[in-house]
């Protein structure tokens, strides 16, 4: 899992407003001063399904798919496709979008996005 440490008070501890992100490990947190939030980095298997979607020729289709999604972490993307800055930015975006949500809510959000893309492809 990922830990994100957020200051609870405006200005943070000692005037800091910076968020700390810890991937896999642990960290010290000030009780009643720091908000610790966790975000799962486990693989999520989703089954997007579109029923009776009409193609451009008017043919109704029902399609079921399988997708496996995972929130990217910076340390595993040192390949040519992503540099560390891009991966850190993606992890930050995922934190903004999904922190405070349950795994069920995260899956539902991703599933709705996948089903929307699937409908667009079929049409």
General description of the model:
The chain is an alpha+beta fold. 28% of the residues lie in helices and 27% in strands. The protein has helices at residues 84-98, 103-122; strands spanning 2-7, 20-23, 34-39, 44-46, 49-54, 60-64, 67-69. The protein has a 3-stranded antiparallel β-sheet, with no helix packed on it. The protein has a two-stranded antiparallel sheet with strand order 4-7. The protein starts with a strand and ends with a helix.
- What share of the residues does DSSP label as strand, in percent? 25-35%
Number of strands: 7
State the end-to-end distance: 38 Å
Helix percentage: 25-40%
Structural class, from helix and strand content? alpha+beta
The number of helical elements comes to 2
> Which regions are unreliable across 5 or more consecutive residues at pLDDT < 50?
none
Rg of Cα set: 19 Å
State the order of secondary-structure elements, H for helix, E for strand: EEEEEEEHH
Protein name: Flotillin
GO biological process, one term: protein localization to plasma membrane
Family: Belongs to the band 7/mec-2 family. Flotillin subfamily.
InterPro entries: Band_7/SPFH_dom_sf (IPR036013), Flotillin_fam (IPR027705)
Task: Briefly say what this structure is.
With 123 residues, this protein is an alpha+beta fold.
List keywords for this structure.
123 residues; alpha+beta; three-stranded antiparallel sheet; two-stranded antiparallel ribbon; 2 helices; elongated; Flotillin_fam
Write the layout of secondary structure elements.
Blueprint: E1 2-7, E2 20-23, E3 34-39, E4 44-46, E5 49-54, E6 60-64, E7 67-69, H1 84-98, H2 103-122
Antiparallel strand pairs: 1-2, 1-3, 4-7, 5-6
